[in-house]
Structure formats: structure tokens, C-alpha cells
Amino acid sequence: MKLRDSLSHLCIRLALASFFIWTGAGKLFYSNEYSGNAAATLANMGIVEGPGTPSRATPPTEAPTPENQVPASPPDPSTSEPDTQARAGEAAIIAVQASGGAWSAADFDEPVTARRVHTVTLMLKNAANQGRWPGFLSSDQAIKITAFVICGVEFVGGILVLVGFFTRIASLGLVAAAAGSLVFTTILPAMAAGDTFLWILPPHQLSDPDVWVGAWSPWLLRFFAFMGAVALLLGGPGKIAVDALLFPDTPRERGSSSGDGDEDDD
User: Fold this and answer.
1) Could you tell me which residue, 62 or 224, shows the higher pLDDT?
2) Is residue 108 part of a domain?
3) Residue 194, by phi and psi: left (phi above 0), alpha (psi -120 to 50) or beta?
């Protein structure tokens, strides 16, 4: 590979690095304000503190007093009625215990502040609630860890492809991160809305430029990032990279590259 051929690889690396370092750093090191259902979800996951006592946490009702008195004569089974009152009381206690301790959007009059990484946490939590996320990763702790891993892959992977160090491994992580972002932020919402173009894409809305830009800009940005990461994974970092210094081409690879160049010159 000649030096001029490596410039295309360098351009792809610079574009991917600027995008993923920007997105990763913004999520890891900066905060957002969350309100309503988003704030309630973060509070229920233990990420932020809820305001006081949850509105859905009501004190348990008094259990019905057991009747320990022994009747004078056993009742006739054919005429006795089932003890529905005790069972109703038991069910009420179970329902209160199951629903207690959960915050709702009504509990948050003011927005709460948390790291921007939790926008990914909320996205994964919503996908898990809809059955669109693997069950073994659907616990709150697993979702929180996964969100940090995704943002870390974006940030660290962007730095690695910038300098061209372990480029293919970093590109593989960026491919996965970009694919997940593409699916969960654009494709699945478009499919859920039922208004798609070619089954999975947002409606094209070509007649209205403002609507078209708003609908397609997020999708195109993520699609370009995904395809750029795939291209870097397949093509490698090029000669202008740390990998080229640490892992130089073997004589056989250099001979193959020079042979290709001679054919091109002819």
C-alpha cells in the first residue's frame, strides 16, 4: 500500500474519531436534566434519589383479625360460605407490597440531574420492558453496566482509531455501538409507529424539507457512522497509524502490495 492510498484510511479514521469521541465524552462526562417518567424510571433503578416517599407506596391495610374461637358445632359444609374476606385481605396486602416503593412521574415536580449516559440506560430499559432486549441483560444492574460499557466503547474506540492503535479491534466495537444506536433510536421507533419507508426506515417526507431533515438526519448520521466503522474494520488503518509501526507488513504482504501497484501503473 502506497502512502497516498493510506490517506483514504486516515480520512475515515478522523471522521469516525471526531464523531465517537464527541458522543462518548458527552455521555460520560456531562449531565442532563430528566423529568416525568424518565426521572421516575431513574429513581426506581436507584440512579437518582426520589423526592420523599413514593406516591405509590401506601401503608398496608390492616389485616383481618383471625378468628381463633372454636365453634360450638362444626358447620355444615354444604351451607358454609368460603372465607372470601380473609383471602381478599391477604390479596390486598400482597398487592400493596408488590406495588409499594415505586416512584411515578407525578412525584417529580422538578427535574433531576444525572449523567447523560443514562439516556442510553433509559433506552435499554424501555427496550427491555418491550421484550426487545436479551432477558439475561434486563436487570437494572445489567442495564446500567451495559450503558456505561457502550459509552466507554464509543469514547475509547474513538481515541484508538484516531491514532490507529488496535484499529480493527476498536472498529469492531464501534460497529456494534453504531449498529445498536441505529436500531434502537431510529429503526425500532419507526417500526413501532407503523409509519415506515421500506419496512424499517423513517417515512421519506420528500414533499416537506423541514420534516424530511428532522426525520432523516438522525438516521443518516448513525448510518454513516456504522458504514464508516465497517469500512475501517475491513480496510484497516493504513500506513499512517501506530499499528503500521508496531505491526509492519511481512515481506510477502509488501510484495503483494507492490505487485498490485505495478498492475495499476500499467
Assistant:
1) 224
2) no
3) left
Q: How many CA atoms lie within 13 A of 144 on its CB side?
A: 13
Flag whether 94 is in a domain. no
Q: What is the SS3 assignment for 128?
A: helix
In a domain, 82, yes or no: no
Task: Report the number of distinct structural domains present in the chain.
Answer: 1
Q: Is residue 66 part of a domain?
A: no
Most confident range, picked from 24-28, 194-198, 201-205, 219-223:
24-28
Residues across the chain:
266
Full domain range(s) for residue 141: 10-30+116-255
Q: For residue 79, which phi and psi values (nearest 5 degrees)?
A: -105, -15
Query: What is residue 67's three-state secondary structure?
Result: coil
Q: Which of 85-94, 108-117, 198-207 has the lowest mean pLDDT?
A: 85-94
pTM: 0.75
